[in-house]
Amino acid sequence: MACEGNGISDERIGEALIKEVIKEELKDVSSDCPPLTPLAVEVKTAQEQKIVTQLGIMIRIIGDRVKDDKEFQDAIDGVACCPGSKWDRFKEVAAKVFQHGINWERIAVLFYVAGKLAVRLVEAHLPQSVTDILKWTVDFFKKNLLGWIREHGGWINSFSDLAVASMQGVSSLSSHSYGLIFIFVAGLAIGSFITWRMTKH
């Protein structure tokens, strides 16, 4: 059961999460990006913000595994650099991400790809296209993913799957890996706490 009835909106969290991932990817690139705030709804509660923040961290960890995938990088470059409709090319990339069906990890990958695509467009001196990427990703999310998310218990149920997916990239216990383990444990703790709080109301 999705969390819409507890004052937490899966739609609002999804939109805010897309914006968060894109903003995070762009923070080291350029200051001439258009503001993203008016284009996506804001979260309404501290609880929603905690969910967005924690999911954003896990998406970046999962995304870091995809960044070495040449096929994905070529697809991102294709949207940014090839002539023709960027919307059509974006839909092709999204179709590639979900070619084997929808799951939490693939949703995370799509959001990460949107962030990387925004970076490529800024690097190609097309910062105005960042707003298009945000709109397209939000549109794709609402039309193709939101129903699935609600059917699978809402974002609150994504924590354990995304935490496991984010840990799969850890091959040895380096100091960086300890940080990932901390994020994993923190994610589980926050997810458990939020779930416990929602069952008490």
From TrEMBL:
One of its GO terms (cellular component) is mitochondrial outer membrane. PROSITE patterns: BCL2_FAMILY (PS50062). GO terms for biological process: extrinsic apoptotic signaling pathway in absence of ligand; intrinsic apoptotic signaling pathway in response to DNA damage; mitochondrial fusion; regulation of apoptotic process; release of cytochrome c from mitochondria. Keywords: Apoptosis. It comes from the Eukaryota. Residues 59-155 form the Bcl-2 Bcl-2 homology region 1-3 domain. Signal peptide: none annotated. The keyword RNA-binding does not apply. The keyword Amino-acid biosynthesis does not apply. InterPro entries: Bcl-2-like_sf, Bcl-2_BH1-3, Bcl-2_fam, Bcl2-like. It holds the Pfam family Bcl-2. One of its GO terms (molecular function) is BH domain binding. CDD domains: Bcl-2_like. PANTHER family: APOPTOSIS REGULATOR BAX, BCL-2 RELATED. Belongs to the Bcl-2 family. This is Bcl-2 Bcl-2 homology region 1-3 domain-containing protein. The lineage of its organism: Eukaryota, Metazoa, Chordata, Craniata, Vertebrata.
